[in-house]
Amino acid sequence: MTATLPFFPPDLFEADRDTLIGIVRDLGTAPAQRFILGDHTARFEQALRDTVAGADVVACGSGTSALSLVLAALGIGPGDEVVVPAFGCAPIAATVVTAGATPVFADVRPDTMTLDPGLAEAAITPRTKAIMPAHQFSVMADMPAFEDIAERHGLRLVEDSAVAQGATLRGRPAGTWGDAGVFSFVQVKSFGMPGEGGAVITRNPDLAATVRMLRNHGQDGKRRFVHHRVGYNSRFDEVQAAFQVRRLPGLAARLARRADIAAYYTERFAPLSGRGITPPPAGRDGRCYYVYCLRADRRDELAAHLAAHGIGTHVYYPAPLPAQPAFARYAPPGAAWPNAVAASETILALPVYPHLSDAQVEHIADAVGQFADRKESRP
Amino acid sequence: MSVISLPRKGNQPPAASAQIPFFSQAAGFHRLWPDIEARLHEVADSGKFSHGAQVARLEHLLADYTGATHVVGVNSGTDALILLLRACGLGAGDGVLVPAFTFVATASSVVHAGGRPQFTDIDPATYQMCPDAAARAITPRTRAVMPVHLFDRMADVAAFAALASRHGLTLLEDSAEAIGMRRQGRHAGLHGVGGVLSFFPSKTLGAIGDAGAVLTDDAGIATSVAALRHHGRPGATIGDFPAIKTGSELVGVNSKMDDVQAAVLIAKLSTLEQDIARRAELAAAYTERLSGVPGVRRVPGPVTDGRDDRDVCYAYVIEVEDRDRLATALTAAGIGTEVYYPVPLHLQPCFAGLGHRPGDFPHAEDACRRTIALPLYPDLTVAGVDRVCAEIRRHYTGTTS
């Protein structure tokens, strides 16, 4: 059946539909006829700087591409190794491969499902150039520990903060840890938009300048068609920038609503942890409730139960990265990532978008509780 | 009322009509607005804003228009080249013959796909990659040849197909500029294993942002490109959010097209043939007025305009004396121009490692010194062409007649 509460809501931007259409009309007919990396993008970048403690923000084509730009700007390429989590979204490994380097998979922590600092450190070899932890679902990776490791080993630290825009850890915003971080604005993200886009965040002005060059074919922004680096086309559309500038003032309230929904879920689900359903670790420090992902021993049954109650769910990653065909050649024989395997077998994400009503949130929590009760009542 | 506002720039001349920008699609966009607006509502109704239903529709419409069996929408023409080259199985260090006079993406895409660009010179009369020069550049490492259809005509695809066949090379086409161009009834991009389209705003079919596509008749290449654009995910992912729960079979990228852009492109595709005809009229008007003008060394030669063989004037490019001074004078007169391209690829800083020197490809180097592109787009009026030509004549002769 079609979920009456879809996991991916189609009406994320409904309140701003006329704004979007008006922007397309105005830009399409404006005398400037500037559609890519123009004044709106510059304003958007400037507005975002204020949200990341003044770090530089370079808007680009996608969060994935942002990671590629950072790796290229850091000079990571053939012969280099990058330690990445064994569990997560494909770009964390794919961008390392497309940079010409080798991803080295380390397991995640069993509770947060983020890269385990101890295991990451153990994976360092003389060829290691960087560590690239990723924030996962709603939880930031242990960035203070990774900064310490990177410092002690003389490694670059790239923060895959694509899912954590708006989170802060010990007062420091996601994206501002390490050499550089990234944001993704694909529609479902916490600051999603009606199109593809991303950003690089860095406090290093040289790195920012190199990323700016790389995103637009290696040009320096002064002389057109002179290419200093083998660059990419990873630019930002003016339509999207104008839209995001309009949406930015509402972001804090949307994030707060997501966090409130998550807090309610966690309060309701905490008592279920002895009954095969475990909520993510509670709290707000280092959290951004882009995805609320619980762990369920009988995950597929829970998903079916919720579907029967009209509630859409999603299993983000069905297999650890080294178990996927694309990355199998980077899985050394005999290596194992048991926490990644356990995560992929038990994760189930619930709707947590800000326009869910309180009644809908309660309905979802009730349905999860019913499942736990039903299981418990079995002989 | 405008929903967006930017600080007004100073020193704007009072009469905007006196300005002839290098590019504008504002009037055509305005005419198409009812169609575009309706499609944008469809996008909003669907709730999927990239890699969605409009992108799927655009792919089908482009397949109909070009005759390609497969069209795969991606984020840019550059990405289309990279993914096409990767889907062809280009290996580390494989050589790809490309012209030295073209946009950088022709060669940077080869690097990103793991290969090595092998530059060759152009035919000075047409600016197209020269088959004989390409044949001389073949080495044991050469694996593919990728001519570009530049500005206003196709490269000699029959000659390149013969060359590829003779030497066992893969033929690909950088057809980013070549929508509407055909040889022997076959659309540009479909004379080898595949080609690309760029929908950069100023292109013959232009979006209002970045977008591109791969064209191919090869099902295997299409399947690979479709997976590569979406994180290496197999199967039909377009319009299907839950499809992101599949794992990666290939090491992919994110190069999904925005549905807002697809919506604009679908509307513009409905007038593409008229736009192409308009471009040809304007190009002919330029050539008529500029032929024999002192200082103008070359206007574009004749192009084909038949049913089976057709060129399309994407860019109107002339050769002039003291090019940079003309560009400055036209800018001062409120006329926009562009230099495609001031530096040939073999002398670009980013390819310094390939070890080329000035003089290696003299025709490409001459073209970079002498050529200038004039405003050419369907919105332009013949009166506008008159004014551009009068200013050029005034610059070189001191009089407009």
Q: What would your notes on this structure say?
A:
The complex is a heterodimer of chains A (379) and B (401). Chain A has 379 residues and is an alpha/beta fold. In chain A, 37% of the residues lie in helices and 13% in strands. The mean pLDDT of chain A is 96. With 401 residues, chain B is an alpha/beta fold. Chain B has helices spanning 26-46, 53-66, 77-87, 105-112, 131-137, 157-167, 219-228, 259-269, 272-290, 323-332, 362-370, 382-397, and strands at residues 70-74, 95-99, 116-120, 142-145, 170-173, 182-183, 186-187, 194-198, 212-216, 296-298, 316-320, 371-374. Mean pLDDT of chain B is 95; it is low at 5-17. Chains A and B meet through helix 1, helix 2, helix 3, helix 4 and helix 8 of A and helix 1, helix 3, helix 4 and helix 8 of B.
Distance between the termini of chain B: 44 Å
Structural class, judged by helices and strands of chain B? alpha/beta
Number of helices of chain B: 12
Poorly predicted tracts of residues of chain A: none
Number of DSSP strand runs of chain A: 12
Number of helices of chain A: 12
- Largest beta-sheet details of chain B: 7 strands, mixed
Summary tags:
heterodimer; A: alpha/beta; 7-stranded mixed sheet; globular; B: alpha/beta; 37% helix
Give the structure's gist in a few sentences.
Chain A is an alpha/beta fold and 379 residues long. Helix content of chain A is 37%, strand content 13%.
Layout of strands and helices, then pairs:
The complex is a heterodimer of chains A (379) and B (401).
Chain A: H1 17-29, H2 39-49, E1 56-60, H3 63-73, E2 81-85, H4 91-98, E3 102-106, H5 117-122, E4 128-131, H6 143-153, E5 156-159, E6 168-169, E7 172-173, E8 180-184, E9 198-202, H7 205-215, H8 238-247, H9 251-269, E10 277-278, E11 292-296, H10 299-308, H11 338-346, E12 347-350, H12 358-377
Parallel strand pairs in A: 2-3, 2-4, 4-5, 5-8
Antiparallel strand pairs in A: 1-9, 6-7, 8-9, 10-11, 11-12
Helix pairs in contact in A: 1-8, 2-8, 3-4, 3-7, 9-12
Chain B: H1 26-46, H2 53-66, E1 70-74, H3 77-87, E2 95-99, H4 105-112, E3 116-120, H5 131-137, E4 142-145, H6 157-167, E5 170-173, E6 182-183, E7 186-187, E8 194-198, E9 212-216, H7 219-228, H8 259-269, H9 272-290, E10 296-298, E11 316-320, H10 323-332, H11 362-370, E12 371-374, H12 382-397
Helix pairs in contact in B: 1-8, 2-8, 3-4, 3-7, 9-12
